[in-house]
Structures are given as C-alpha cells and as structure tokens.
Amino acid sequence: MTEHDRWILSFYRHSEISGAQFFARLAKTLPAGPIQHDLTKHFADESQHAWYWTKALDEMGLEPLKMTFAYQDQYLEAAGMPTNIMEILSLTQVFERRIISQYARHGRVKDVHPAIKATINTIMEDEKWHIHWVGEALKGLEESFGAERVRKTYEHYRQADEAVYERFVTEHEERIGHILDKQNYAF
Ligand SMILES: [Fe+2]
Ligand SMILES: [Fe+2]
What we know:
Distance between the termini: 20 Å
Number of domains: 1
Helix content: over 70%
Number of helices: 7
CATH class: Mainly Alpha
Radius of gyration: 17 Å
Bound molecules: fe (ii) ion
Order of helices and strands: HHHHHHH
Shape: globular
CATH architecture: Up-down Bundle
Strand content: under 5%
C-alpha cells in the first residue's frame, strides 16, 4: 500500500505544481481586475497544495516520485487549447470539480493515513473557494459571451474530463483501485 500511496501522493503533488504553473502564467498576463485578483490567490493556493503534499510524503517517510505526465496535459489534448478567458475558466471549473471529488473520495477511504486525511481536509477548504470564485466569474462573463455559449463550453470540457478520467482510472487501476473501491469506504 505504501508504494501506491507514494505514487498517488506524488501524482497529486505533480498536478498541484502543474496547476500553479498554469495559473501563474495567467496571473502575469491578465489585465488588472477581479479575475486577475482571484486568479493570483488561486495560483498561490495551488503552490501551497504542492507543498502540503510534499510535507505529507515526508511525514510518511516517502520521497516524491518524478512524474512524467500531468492530468492537465491530457485534458488539453482531449479538449483543445482554450483560447479566451471564458474557456480557460470553464476548463478550470470542470477540473476543480474533478479534483474535489477525487480528494473527497480519497478522504473517505477506510484506514487512510492521518497525514493524507489532514492534508485533504486543509486543501478542500481552498478547493471549495476555487469552485466558488470561478463559478461567479463565469456568471459575470455570460454578459459578454452569452449564457448559452458558456453552458456549451462547460459541457464540452465536462465531456473531455469524463473521457480523460476514465482512461486515467483504467491505466492506473492497480495504484488507485483502493481509493475507488466502494468496499474500502469508511461508510
Ligand atoms: Fe489544489
Ligand atoms: Fe484548485
């Protein structure tokens, strides 16, 4: 189990770093305003999450594995590169929802290591805010893009997410099966 924990925590760490890098680039280029403001905090949070997972691995006596792929890259491959802020935020919203459900699921695994549980609990608070501010920003963008276009864009990324997640689960079933197996839930 420890090897599986090491892999999945390294994967989380790597994903958080990729997220931080993605938002960091945006935070540098976006014009001043509420989206730049919240996105800068979002970027800072994702950096912290990478640090929390690094710390959790250390507490468990594990070293982070070097990961060669990022879930985010597979998303972009499946859904195409977003070309405007509305598409970026729609993709972000889908991705954040996936992450929050993955962390919630992992937090419910029976006998989950206390360091994992504590890290998930801390991160969850930030992730809830990520979903909130991105949702509000998207609502605001409906004015310039049209509600229907925003809805369709979100749906496009949601479908891409389902395909990517399904592939991810199949490819790494051995490593993450214990998280996904309902038998292992505490309730
Ligand atoms: Fe995060
Ligand atoms: Fe997040």
